Amino acid sequence: MPSAFKLFALAIGAVVLIALPFIADGIGMPAATTLATSMLIYGIAAASLNLALGYGGLVSFGHAAFLGLGGYVVGILYHHFVSGDPVFGWFAGTNQLIVSVPAAMLVCGLLAAAIGALSLRTSGVQFIMITLAFAQMLFFLFVSLKAYGGDDGLIIRRRNALPGLDTRDDTTFYFVCLAIAAVCWLLLQRFARSRFGVVLSGVRQSERRMAALGFTPYIYKLVAFIVSGMGTGLAGALLANHLRFVSPDTLHWTKSGELMVMVVLGGVGTLSGPWLGAAALVALEAILAAWSENWQIFLGLVLLVVVLLTRGGLDRLLRLLGRRSS
Amino acid sequence: MRRRDILLGSAAALATGTRAFAQTPVTIGMVTTLSGPGGYLGQDIRDGFKLVMDMEGGKLGGVPVQLVVEDDALKPGQGKQIADRLLKNDKVKLFTGIVFSNVAGAVVPDVVDAGAIYVSPNAGPSNLAGKECHKNYFVASWQNDNIHEAAGQAATNLGYKRAFILAPNYQAGKDSLAGFRRFFKGDIAGEIFTRLDQTDFAAEMAQIRAANPDVVFQFHPGGLGIAFLRQYQQAGLLGKIPMVVSEASIDNVILAALGDAALGIYVGSHWNTDFDNAANKAFVPAWQKAYGRPITTYSQQGYDTALLIASALKATGGKVNDTAAMRAALAKADFQSTRGAFKFGLNQHPIQDWYMLKVEKGDDGKPVLRTVQKILTNHTDAYAAQCKL
Amino acid sequence: MTLVFEQLLNGVQLGVMLFLLAAGLTLVFGIMGVINLAHGSLYMIGAYAGALVAAKTGSFLIAFPTALLAAAAAGMLMETMVIRRLYARDHLDQVLATFALILIFNELITITFGRQPLFVSVPPLLNGSIELVPGFRYPAYRLAIIVVGLLVGVGLYGLIQHTRVGMLVRAGATHRDMVRALGIDVRLLCTLVFGLGALLAGLAGVMAGPILAVQVGMGEQILIMTFVVVVIGGVGSIRGAFLGALIVGIVDTLLRAFMPSLLRQVMVGSEADALGAGLASMGVYLLMAIVLLVRPRGLFIHGQ
User: Fold this and answer.
1) Who has greater pLDDT, A69 or A28?
2) A136 touches chain C (CB under 8 A)
């Protein structure tokens, strides 16, 4: 009975996630909490990318643009909050999470609308490359923006504030991210089962068929791309708060690649895959880097084995295990 | 190859267990760049640092030390994650190692806010030198602008009137040109920002030839600099139009590659292998003996940083948890630097002398860097005044 | 005027290097449908093999073929061990697997050769510059690169258009199953094509050695630019890769050379330089985006 197993796994997962900071403190490894925060944030980014990639079949090689831009919105608003001069001489900066995160999502949504509207005129390899092109342009733009630190990046001395909470405390910030991640999870789950999600999957499988049924594939793909960009922007905004730093590093094409790796590693087009993939990649990087100076070779080997041997990533692996145990 | 180089001191004492005061070793976290094109910089910093420990038998200032080296892969997020783990899980109180300014920007605020101390062996970005300076943040190398200011002063001293200047189009590149301009008294004949991922400079060579300046100043760190100098040589410009560079742009590795063609290049520098002081005379042969590869500025930075930390550990008896005492001891900078005179300024960045070096033929016929003259004395940086400590 | 001419030559030289890399990539892309991010690693292997042999023997003439062989061997090994298993997969699996290969190759090179960059000297014969027209000199080595690149271009064109193997390659790019049905060993064909692409990447690598620093990660620096060339020229087309590479090389070089001074006409010096450099960096990507919007299949692919 896979569904019982699924419920059981979800319950276990929820308990572990809530108890994690206390366990981490208890066993004298409090850094596990911040590591888990990274996993959650990258999980949000990967799950958002999966929306375009897995459900929409839109292989975007430029999602770092949204991750970086989301971070830069937070960084730039904070920068102006501290210096006191208005952004573009127009509105004041802020250090409030409740303002900066929606702002980041809005800006990323607009960017995604622009990039998507143009890019969706192509498909296949051309789509991969055109999304890459836009992300690269944004990368070079921020590298040459001296006012916002250029290549050195922007330091966000203090995390954005939330009324009634001390976000500077790592455990509190973990729970903030956990709550946001949980909301994302639920929304994505509902989305996948919604009429929109079903049509989108249909478009991925056969655009012509859906068009014949009276749907306009372009609109569905564009909306999916925009929502995906907004979600990744949300992750970027949280990441900037988590690291208290944003730099063009988050806009680089290798970051787009990393996000893709997370999704593929976990399982494309599945609900839990991207979260698993993000957690696995973040954990692998942390553990291998602490273990060996030449950690990248081991990371490469692990990724290679996973992609060659498991079709469908970690999600599928877990499902197989679940079926066996039940 | 295990990452954690556990260098335990006083092995004999630990083995016999007879000496009651055998201390638990002080852990020093070294977050540095070991992979990718910038990897050799971090490697030299690490090996320079380890050299001091080896010479003391695994100790620094008489205190046993455990050095934990981890690779940030030039990713700010990765660096932060490592520092966080060392801070929280391993309760490390003393950090060093970062090569690149963008990694420093992500890691240093975390380290100092957690009450630990960070001693920078290389990166001294302006965004941490002025208003954002911190009592727990020390820079043992230089403020980033300094090396270019020295090059500007060298060009001025040499009497050049028209300079052509180039650097990559990113923050450190822009800072370098600003630093050069600040101390160069002549005119700028042309200015080019190259691309960060650019490795072919043919277009720039043509521009330089067309402008025909008195002198060229360029700043291209690591492999970029090597490519630039080689192409400068291939374009037939080397030897025709003199070049002044900052010390990040030329070192003994690059010299070996350029050969005779490098003769005549001027460098503004805070240190050279031929400095006549006891510390340097101990360092240079020890490096050759231990590693046998060319000695670089980064080797010296790692070595000097270790000497500085050793002086503080000695003064406090290895009590790194007493941050105030460690801070006070570090601020005194009570060590014999391989560069000669050294003290900390208001923002805990160095106040030091800068020199002009020239590439000349050595005794064995191979080009070497010779010190020509001192060009700046007790030089501080442009941001110190903004720092309120 | 000579400045413009010199910059044009520089653009051609960059374009030729890009072509050598793009040729292999576009064939692999076109025939096998594989996105190979690790193509830059083959370039790096060529450069390292060349640097190693040149240092040991002191002879560029020996280093040159060794590098080609090393890169081709590495390429064919890569194809049989990993890439072959990816033909039936989607682009996502290919990206993940070849991304993993990049990590593995970079770290293997680090372990074998250390972290310090290596150097290759220009062959003595080509050291110096040649007076092309009176009063205008150009580095001999760069001229040699242009010549080699053009020769390879012509040779490849002949191979693809006028030989039996070339015919199979062309057929394989468009009608793979048909070729298989005709009893051709497609697996072998794929391995050979991959090896050829790797050989050309290795050629680019060994020729880049004396100009650039041979270092870990050098492949990734040029990889994205190569993809731009492939896409602009049209996936699977050698002719497209050649023309696309020249366009990208020349556009990139000219933008870099003249954009800041153009901007300086309307802005103050330092600001203009910074913005100009930023715009020049974005230039090729903007070009690619425009090409994809106007002609999604590339500039040099005709029909559907």
Assistant:
1) A69
2) yes
**Which pLDDT tens digit goes with each residue over C16-54?**
999 999 998 998 887 788 889 999 999 999 999 999 999
Q: Which two tokens stand for residue A188?
A: 């994505």
Answer yes or no: do B236 and C281 touch at CB < 8 A. no
> CA geometry: angle at A212 spanning A209 and A213, to 5°?
90
In DSSP terms, A91 is beta-bridged to A87
Interface contacts (A, C; CB < 8 Å): 123
CA atoms of C299 and C304, how far apart (whole Å): 12
Cβ atoms C142, B236 nearer than 8 A: no
In C, which residues are within 8 Å of A61 by CB distance? Answer: 95
Would you call B226 and C106 a contact, using CB atoms and an 8 Å cutoff?
no
Q: Is A294 an interface residue toward C (CB < 8 Å)?
A: yes
Counting as contact any 3 or more CB pairs under 8 A, the partners of C are A, B
What the block records as the tokens of B87 is 């801070």
What pTM, to 2 d.p., does this model score? 0.85
Query: Which SS3 state, helix, strand or coil, does residue B371 take?
Result: strand
Identify the pLDDT of residue B77: 84
pLDDT band at B18 (very low <50, low <70, confident <90, very high): very low
Nearest Cβ partner of C224 from A121, A134, A253?
Answer: A253
Beta bridge partners of B361: B367
**DSSP-assigned states of every residue in B101-117:** HHHHHHHHHHHHHTT-E
Q: What is the ipTM of this complex?
A: 0.85
Cα–Cα distance, B248 to B17 (Å, whole number):
47
**All chains having 3 or more CB pairs closer than 8 angstroms to chain B:** A, C
Q: Is C29 on the interface with A (CB under 8 A)?
A: yes
The answer to whether residues C194 and C79 touch, using CB atoms and an 8 Å cutoff, is yes
What residues in B contact A293, CB-CB < 8 Å?
A: 1-3, 34, 69, 71
The chain B residue lying nearest A27, using CA atoms, is B89
Instruction: Assess B163–C contact: CB distance below 8 Å, yes or no.
Output: no
| Residue labelled with tokens 């492939």 | C230
Dihedral of CA atoms C178, C184, C185, C187 in degrees, nearest 10, equals -30
Please list, in sequence order, all residues whose beta carbon lies within 8 angstroms of the beta carbon of residue B31, skipping any fewer than 6 positions away: B70, B72, B79, B82, B83, B86, B95, B97, B98, B103, B107
Question: Contact at 8 Å (CB) between B201 and B227?
Answer: yes
Specify the amino acid at residue C145.
I
Q: Is the pLDDT of residue C215 over 80?
A: yes
- At residue C270 the predicted structure's pLDDT band, cuts being 50, 70 and 90, is low
Q: Which of B84, B144, B92, B29 is nearest to B323 (CA)?
A: B92
Q: Where in chain B is the domain with CATH 3.40.50.2300?
A: 11-142+275-344, 145-269+353-386
Residues of C with Cβ-Cβ distance to B34 under 8 angstroms: 115
Q: Which of C95, C108, C110 sits opposite A260 (nearest CB)?
A: C95
**CATH T-level assignment (fold) for domain B11-142+275-344:** Rossmann fold (3.40.50)
- Cα A159 to Cα A95: distance, rounded to the nearest angstrom: 8
Cα dist from B211 to A259, B155, B215, B245, B246, whole Å: 46, 18, 11, 18, 22
Domain B145-269+353-386 in CATH 3.40.50.2300? The answer is yes
* Contact status of B206 with chain C (Cβ, < 8 Å): yes
Q: Of the given ranges (A296-305, A308-317, B124-133), which has the lowest mean pLDDT?
A: A308-317
Flag whether pLDDT at B331 surpasses 50. yes
Q: Are A286 and B81 in contact (CB < 8 Å)? A: yes
Model pLDDT for residues B168-194, shown as the tens digit of each residue? 877 778 788 989 999 999 999 988 888
For chain A, strand residue ranges (E) read 154-155, 245-246
Give the tens place of pLDDT for each residue, B219-258. 987 667 778 888 888 888 888 899 999 987 887 877 877 7
How many angstroms separate the CA atoms of A290 and B130, rounded?
33
Looking at beta carbons, which residues of chain A come within 8 Å of B196? 143, 151
